[in-house]
C-alpha cells in the first residue's frame, strides 16, 4: 500500500490494526511480510526502527550494547529499510545437515526438526534473490572448476560453494518494493522503534505493540499475530522486554531466554604467496560461471570434526587491494564521486591511468573468463571461520542503562572457550596438511607467527563475523527453549520469531539462507492458524 514514516504522521499518536504485525524490515521481515500479504484477506503492517536512505545517527546509536568483557564486537546492524541486507555481501549457503544432527563429541543435541524440511523453500528463495539453482556442494565442482585446479574427495575438507546475489539484489527492500507499493493490504512504517508490549493478562496473548520515535510520537499496532524479525540481537532484546511487560510469561517457564548466545569466530591465519599467479587466481577467486557469483569454502568434514572432538569450521579466501593500486584508486574515485567530491574524483582517476592494463585485465577476467581478477599486488589471505558452540553462560540480558528513547540496552556476557581454541588450532593443522597434499605447486602459505606459537591463544585474536545466534533458541521443551518448531513462542500463543536467534546451533555456514527459510516456515504456520480461525468463524456464521 505504502511506505510511511512515523515522523510524518499527522497526529502525535497513531493507532492502526492488522491481521499480522511484522517487527523489523530486514531480509526476514520483508520477505515474510510480502509472503503473508500474498493472501488478500491478510492485512500486514511492518514496523521498522530505521528509515530509508542515509542512516540516522541517533537511530543507529540505538544498536549500542554493553560489552564489559570486550569479547564481542559483532553487533553489525543496520536500522533501515532492508536491514543489514543493505550492508552485506549476501552469501547464501545451507547449513550443513550434520551440523544440525546429534553431535555427542561436542555435547550438541539435534535441531528439533529435520532441517531438510527447509529445502522446500530453496527454489523460491533462489528465484527471489536472482541466483542459480545448481548445487552448493562439491558435486558442482566440474562446472565451477572444470580444469580441476581444486582438490576433490579430500579426506579432511569438502568444497562448498555459496551463492551471492547481484549487487542490485543485495538490499531486500529493492526486491520487494514494487509489491509493497502496489499491494493494498501491506503498510510499512519507518522510524518507529517498538517500546511497549500489551498483553492479555489471562491468556498471555499479545494484543498490541507501541512504537515511538525521538520526536515523542507513537504508533500503536493491534494484530491477531505478531512476527518478530528484528535480527538476532534486537529480537532478543525485544523478547526480554516483552517478557517483563507480560509479567514473566517466558521466564516463569524456564531460563532459556537470552542464553546460548553465539557467533562465528574468524582469523586470518596465512597470506597466500602464489608460485603461479594465474593458476592461483583461477583456482581460488570468485566466479560467475553459472551466472551469479560463487565463493569458495573448504569445510571440515563431519567425521574429521568428530575425530578432533571439535565444532564445525571452514576456510576461505579474502582479497585486499592496496590503496595505491589502480583498482584501489578507481574504487576511491567512485566513492568520492558518490560523495560529490569532484577534486578527489578527478585526482583518483588521474592517478589510476598508469594501471590501465590491470583495469583491462579485470574486465576481461570478469566478462571473458567469468572470474574475479587478482592484480599481482593484491593481498590474498586465508581465513579460518569456526562455529562457536552454544554455551549456557554466554548470554544477552537487559542492562540497567537506557538508550536515547529510554529503552533498556542489551548487555552481552560472552566467554571464548577452550573448545573455540581447540577448533581453531585443529582446523589450522588440518588446513596445513591439506595444502601440503594438494596446493603447494600453486601457492605457498605464510602463516601468522601465532600459529607456530603453542602458547599463543588464537581465539583471542579472532573476530566475530556478525552472525549472532541462539538467544531465543528453538526446541520442544519450554524450560530449555523459547520457540517451538513452528517458531512460535511457547508461552505467547500469537508471537513468533524468525531470526538466527532461534538457531539451536549455528554450524559454520552463513545464516542468511536458513534465516529466510525459517521466516517462510513461520509464515506458513501463521497462515495455517489464520485460515483455521477463518474457517471456525465461517462455520459459526453458518450455524
TrEMBL record:
| One function term, GO molecular function aspect | oxidoreductase activity, acting on CH-OH group of donors
List the cofactors.
Answer: FAD
Q: Where is the Glucose-methanol-choline oxidoreductase C-terminal domain?
A: 394-519
Q: Highest taxon of the source?
A: Bacteria
Q: Which residues form the FAD-dependent oxidoreductase 2 FAD-binding domain?
A: 20-53
Tell me which Gene3D superfamilies the record gives. FAD/NAD(P)-binding domain (3.50.50.60)
List UniProt keywords, sorted A-Z. FAD, Flavoprotein, Oxidoreductase
- Please report which protein family the annotation says this sequence is part of: Belongs to the GMC oxidoreductase family.
Q: What is this protein called?
A: Uncharacterized protein
The record lists the organism as Mycolicibacterium anyangense
Classification lineage: Bacteria, Bacillati, Actinomycetota, Actinomycetes, Mycobacteriales
Amino acid at each position: 500500500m505504502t511506505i510511511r514514516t512515523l515522523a510524518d504522521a499527522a497526529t502525535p499518536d497513531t493507532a492502526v490494526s492488522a491481521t499480522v504485525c511484522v517487527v523489523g524490515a530486514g531480509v526476514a521481515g520483508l520477505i515474510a511480510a510480502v509472503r503473508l500479504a500474498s493472501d488478500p484477506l491478510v492485512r500486514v503492517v511492518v514496523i521498522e526502527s530505521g528509515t530509508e536512505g542515509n542512516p540516522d545517527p541517533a537511530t543507529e546509536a540505538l544498536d549500542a550494547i554493553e560489552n564489559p568483557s570486550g569479547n564481542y564486537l559483532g553487533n553489525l546492524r543496520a536500522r533501515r529499510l532492508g536491514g543489514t541486507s543493505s550492508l552485506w555481501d549476501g552469501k547464501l549457503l545451507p547449513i550443513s545437515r550434520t551440523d544440525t544432527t546429534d553431535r555427542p563429541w561436542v555435547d550438541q543435541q539435534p535441531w528439533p526438526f529435520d532441517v531438510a524440511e527447509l529445502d522446500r523453500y530453496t527454489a523460491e528463495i533462489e528465484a527471489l534473490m536472482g541466483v542459480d539453482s545448481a548445487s552448493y556442494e562439491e558435486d558442482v565442482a566440474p562446472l565451477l572448476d572444470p580444469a580441476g585446479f581444486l582438490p576433490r574427495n579430500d579426506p579432511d575438507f569438502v568444497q562448498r560453494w555459496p551463492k551471492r546475489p547481484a549487487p542490485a539484489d543485495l538490499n531486500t527492500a529493492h526486491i520487494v518494493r514494487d509489491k509493497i507499493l502496489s499491494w493494498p493490504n501491506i503498510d510499512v512504517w519507518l522510524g518507529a522503534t517498538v517500546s511497549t508490549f500489551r498483553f492479555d493478562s489471562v491468556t498471555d496473548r499479545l494484543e498490541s505493540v507501541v512504537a515511538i520515535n525521538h520526536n515523542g510520537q507513537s504508533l500503536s499496532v493491534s494484530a491477531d499475530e505478531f512476527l518478530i524479525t528484528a535480527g538476532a540481537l534486537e529480537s532478543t532484546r525485544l523478547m526480554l522486554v516483552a517478557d517483563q511487560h507480560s509479567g514473566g510469561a517466558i521466564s516463569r517457564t524456564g531460563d532459556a531466554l537470552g542464553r546460548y548466545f553465539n557467533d562465528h569466530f574468524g582469523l586470518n591465519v596465512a597470506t597466500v604467496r602464489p608460485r603461479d599467479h594465474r593458476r592461483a587466481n583461477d583456482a581460488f577467486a570468485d566466479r560467475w560461471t553459472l551466472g551469479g557469483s560463487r565463493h569458495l569454502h573448504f569445510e571440515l568434514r563431519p567425521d574429521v570434526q568428530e575425530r578432533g572432538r571439535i565444532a564445525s569450521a571452514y576456510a576461505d579466501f579474502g582479497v585486499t587491494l592496496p590503496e595505491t593500486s589502480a583498482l584501489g584508486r578507481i574504487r576511491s574515485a567512485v566513492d568520492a564521486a558518490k560523495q560529490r567530491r569532484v577534486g578527489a574524483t578527478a585526482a583518483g582517476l588521474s592517478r589510476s591511468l598508469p594501471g590501465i592494463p590491470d583495469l583491462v585485465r579485470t574486465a576481461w577476467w570478469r566478462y571473458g573468463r567469468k572470474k574475479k581478477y587478482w592484480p599481482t599486488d593484491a593481498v590474498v589471505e586465508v581465513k579460518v571461520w569456526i562455529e562457536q558452540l552454544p554455551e549456557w553462560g554466554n548470554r544477552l540480558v537487559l542492562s540497567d542503562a537506557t538508550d536515547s528513547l529510554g529503552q533498556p540496552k542489551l548487555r552481552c556476557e560472552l566467554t571464548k572457550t577452550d573448545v573455540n581454541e581447540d577448533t581453531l588450532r585443529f582446523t589450522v593443522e588440518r588446513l596445513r596438511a591439506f595444502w601440503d597434499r594438494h596446493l603447494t605447486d600453486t601457492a605457498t602459505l605464510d602463516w601468522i607467527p601465532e600459529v607456530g606459537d603453542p602458547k599463543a591463544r588464537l581465539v583471542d585474536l579472532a573476530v566475530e563475523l556478525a552472525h549472532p545466534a541462539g538467544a531465543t533458541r528453538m526446541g520442544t521443551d519450554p524450560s530449555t527453549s523459547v520457540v517451538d518448531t513452528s517458531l512460535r513462542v511457547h508461552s505467547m500463543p500469537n508471537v513468533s520469531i524468525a531470526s538466527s536467534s532461534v538457531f539451536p546451533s549455528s554450524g559454520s555456514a552463513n545464516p542468511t539462507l536458513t534465516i529466510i527459510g525459517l521466516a517462510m516456515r513461520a509464515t506458513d504456520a501463521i497462515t495455517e492458524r489464520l485460515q483455521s480461525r477463518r474457517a471456525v468463524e465461517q462455520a459459526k456464521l453458518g450455524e
